[in-house]
Structures are given as structure tokens and as C-alpha cells.
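User: I'm curious whether this sequence folds into something compact or stays loose and floppy. Could you predict its structure so I can see for myself?
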Amino acid sequence: MTSHSRPYTGRVIGVHDVSADTRKITVEIEGRQRLPFGAGQYMQLSVEGFEQRPFSIASAPHEPLLEFHIKNSGRGLSAHIAEALQPGQPITLEGPLGESHWKPAEEDAPVRPLLMLAGGLGIAPLKSIITACLHGRTHPPVHLYWGVRTAAQLYLDDFFRDLAKKNPRFSYIPVLSDETDAAGHRAGLIGHAVAEDFETLAGFSIYMAGPGAMIDATVPLLLHKGVEEDYIFSDSFGV
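Assistant: Here's the prediction. I'll summarize afterward.
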């Protein structure tokens, strides 16, 4: 999909605390415009008095409102959004941006299973991709591994568990790096969990989002399992 970056004026529709340090905001573009974007892309957000910052779009292109997950960094725009932003307030958006967005298979092309690897807040763009993919009449198998430190950080745990119940071709595996005895969760790092679960990743398309260290440590494991480098799409997040 080709999309063109441009500025938009929006209005905050909803603000919800989803974890101790993360807020979900929903935004409507002026005139109820629909933003043409690829699932997995991001926007530059800004409000008066604060420098703009990039945030991934967590909603899918077919959904009427834009959704963003904002982690409070303790300063600047993210702190303002997490601590002070209210429904009804204006917000400026510029985009969409980013090349690591979902690229649906062309007609008659081989169907490639999708492997989604999220570290922390990297779950936001992958939620967009998963929602878009599962919205289709037919879709390939989709496997999501979400790595966080503790179970308290799995703020979309119920969402993905419900999705897995409704979609037999979607699987969800949360992985905790700092908890070894949390019931219903894997322990360790997502790269090791994937290596244990798949004998080969040849023929997969892989989307990754999260801290750069996680991506750097995981890519060699994926290549060792046979995935083609051209089918690894990734974005790094400094959170």
C-alpha cells in the first residue's frame, strides 16, 4: 500500500488508563475523515506547547477511530498525554509514516503464515496488523508472541485471549522475562520461545516491533530457523 504523509487536525474522543504507565487514546480526524494507512504504520502527534513525537497506530485501517498507546516517559508530550490529556481536546497528527507495515499477499501468491513478535509497547503496531489481517474473509495462520517483564504489563491480555478463542487460526503466547512462575505464561525471552516452538520458519512472514536490543537478539535466531531475510519486517522502540 502507498500512502502520503500530510498533516491532519484531530480531536481526542477517549482516554483510558490501560496499565500503571500507559494510556490508550482514541482520536477522530476533523470531518470524520478516514486516514489511508497501512497496518503497522505510525503518526507524528503533537499538541500545543509540546514538540511532536512518533506513535504507532494501534487500530486497523478499517476501524473508524485512530487508536494510540502512550507510555509515560516522565517528560514532554508522552507525559502530557499520560497525565493531562482529556477527551474533547484538539491534537495534530502528521503521517502516515513507516515502511514496516503489513503487505497482504497479492492474488494467486503463495499464502505465508504470519509470525508477530512484540516487545513491550511494540504490541501497538502489531495489534493493528493482526486486527486488519483477521478482518479479512480468509487469512493465513497468525502467531503472536508478546514479551514483557511482568504479567502486569500485559494490558491487552484479555483482548488477545478472546481473539484466539474466536479465531482458530490465531494463536497468542505471552512471554515473561522477569517472572518464572506466573500461571498461563511462558518464561524467558520471545526469541527462545519461538525457537522452541517452530522447527522451521521457512515460508513465514515475520513482523517485529519493540526495543532494539530485543530485535537485535532475535533476528539471528529467526535466520537460523530458515526465515528469508527479506520477509523480516521490524521497527525499534526505545521503551
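Summary: The first helix runs from residue 76 to 83. The mean pLDDT is 91.
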